[in-house]
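Hi team,

Filling in the usual template for the complex we talked about on Friday. All components are listed, including any nucleic acid strands or ligand strings, so the model treats them as one assembly.

SUBMITTER: L.P.
PURPOSE: interface mapping
COMPONENTS: two
RESIDUES: 925
SEQUENCES:
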Amino acid sequence: MEPRYYLAWATDEAIRARGANGGFVTALLVSALETDFIDLALVVMKKSVYEGVPVLTDDPELVKESAGSLHGVPWNLAKILLECAPDKRVGVPTKPCDARGIIELAKRRQITLDNVYLIGLNCGGTLHPLRMREVAAELYGLDPDTVQKEEITGGKLIFRYEDEGGATREKGLRIDELEQEGRGRRDACKTCTTKIPVMADLACGNWGVPKGEQKTFVEVLTEKGVAILENALNKGAIAVEDATEQGIALRTKIERAMQELAARWKDELDLLRDKSPSERLAFYTEQLQRCIHCGACRAVCPVCACDEDAKCLDLNDEQDAYAISLYNLLRILHLMDSCIHCGQCEEVCPVDIPLTLIQRRFSERMQAHLDYEPGMDVTETPPYQETKLRWPADAKTSAFEEA
Amino acid sequence: MRTITTNCPGCCIACGLYLLEFSTPELPAGELKLSLAHRKLAPMNEGKLCKFGMHLPTFYGREPLPTLVDGAETEQEEAVSEAKARLERLKPDEIAFVALPSTITNEEIVSFVSGAKACGSANLCFGFEQIINALPEDARSVLINGLPFYEIEAASKIVLFLLDPYVHYPLLARRILKARENGAQVIDIAFAHNWRGIAAETVLIDPLDLGSVQELRDTVANSLIIGEVTPYTSLALISLLLRLAAETASQLFLLKPFANSTGALLLGSSGAERRGDLFEILDSIENGTIKGLYLLETDLSAVLSNAAAVKQTLSQLDVLIEQNAFRTQLSELAHVTLQSEPFYRKRGTILNIEGRLLALGGESTNGLRILEQLGSNRAFAEVHAAVKHVLGLEIAEPTEFEIAAPRIEAMVDVTTLPQVEEKPGALDGEQYVLWYKTNPFFWAGIRDKGFVEISPAAMQALGLFVGDALIEGEHEEKNGFKVVAVPEKLIVSEDPLWMHSRVQWRDVKKGGTVRKVLVKRA
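RESULT (copied from the run log):
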């Protein structure tokens, strides 16, 4: 369907006050639960500025409590949805990487997408929670436990905190300056070019909202998106107005600027690009021989759909005497068409193997060859599940023809 | 779905994680499935977990221990009264209390000590008494003191002493690698090269001549020495390390295999009075001077010897009481079994090796209540206050981001250290030296690997081919092998009990780090 653009907000004052950007997403989920439009909502419940835990609930009050954005909570919800509620009608607020993971799982028949309402959230990136705490203490000079709220706005990471006299104050530093010191967003987020979740049912955020207005800019992308939006409207839980051309253009401009920044980061962080093949092999060997075969990378991977039947597990044995284990090689191979470069694997690796960098090195090139961007379009079959390879027409002809 | 913030009981690092409890359509009503999620805010592990941590949902899925008296199901109150009555029938020195502190909270430790005191027993063991008893009091703090990992990352020189972080304490490895990135000189003193790569420099020592380490004073000078102490560690090795650290102006940091080792050492073992050590207690059971044993969340048969040997000894007891969340190999021998809650459901605190006081995310104090019924009958708050008092934290409730455990000044007078000679032995025929590297699975009673590492020369000498197996033990259990670059006569195993002949605890005690093993091709 042709996308539609609105500005929307919660009609409930309490939700509007607590939620981000006028509380639209919270009101949408609350009304969907209250009207039995969905069975469950999968949300992230704030425990502190630096910590949020996933909660799968049918309780609208819990959803209201979860309102507000958190940047230091880099979960990918795809696996949690798969494990805890594969057969329920669930509403899930998703970052682009959450949505992409869920879509890839759906393509592999692990999740029935008809049951899942992907409430996409624009995402400029997330920060590692511990690094965020350190930043608050070391660069902002704050007691991290006094920080009450964080937000990213106008290119700044802003901490709102309570001073010694009990007054609320705020401090902000530019994210690009933090990142030049290696202290900002996660590397996977810095290099991510999918900032607006156009693969979801709705894409929500504050880009394109007139300055000072507490509203959410909503792009409606699918019939399911229409249905859940209409459900909330019929209940009177939200109010909407058409987005302006100016707002739409501003949103696009912000997205492009962020994509350009991501492209620059991609270049800067690609440590392997200018290396010789032997240098690359030395790098892979040095990094991957540290693998302790814990299996965490597979367990958190939002696109790995094999579960207990994971073929890589057949080779996940330290008795394997190769410096680079067959387990790692098989994973690289298996994920070449589907890796969404979310960085979850690297983040949980107990021996800090730069898995995102290594996987990107292989999968980005393969995905370019296959003209396939995983998790972006549910109608596209993953190439490894097709019987033909769709090499671009202008690709180099075969060695036989050259000869 | 319920999300529980918890810690891993697999080793002294006590990594933070979440456990998710939820129902699924295929489960019967009321039953819940357990899954884990990575808690990236946890300062000790930043969300990362080793293979054992990843295994926790299965670990917690074991068969629960029922509450029984002489094999008959009994209400808990009645079973506790019966346990108490049976212990009271014995003389104080006929009773022993043993707890290897993997899944035991600080509050439970304080309570366990009170319970033992109420019985008048000095046979109270948390796994390190054989070392503590032998060390001068001023030197014991070296055994107890922890070290925040950020200090490891900031160290300028690190010496790993017979420690393979990837195996023993996997979440330590990245800290060593960070230190290297930060410019630290990292030296690995080992019996064989670490094939995963951890140090810039490896100094190989002869496993049959540990004393030769004394010649490495210049190499070790002014460093942070990182080693390990377990119930298997010989006094000779610890004396050697203490002496080496003292003589080279180095700091010694000893990791331990149990999540709450620091809590147990500070709250349970550090008193001036001499306590019975694990091996003495086992000997006393065998010679009949100890007749009653209270085992708190500890399966001795899994970690000390083959199950049959320990079972045979414990079967001589008049009173065996087992308090545990899960059934063990010893449960069938116990006269009274008391069901406590799994670690992740516990309310209470533990102290990790860095000295962080970690509040567990559970709500149950059932295990503590059982222990209190043996002694003081205090409420949780009162016991928790007692814990804080010992730690010098009268008012403060430190968070996980602070180092709460006191670091006690160590005064090591090398002349007072025990002189224990470990005689070099000669190897002949089919004998090999075993270098064991215990991992968290081993201490949880799980054999994870099923293979040993041998040299190409050993493979040839033993006539092995790819796919062959080595056999061990009476039951002829088969082990695989992996050929790596280790010295010709060295076999590396993650199981200290891996050997051809039957292992008694005496062999373990006497053997220290190095033992001879005989292998044969299956």
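MY TAKE: Chain A has a mean pLDDT of 91. The longest helix of chain A spans residues 245-269.

Thanks, L.
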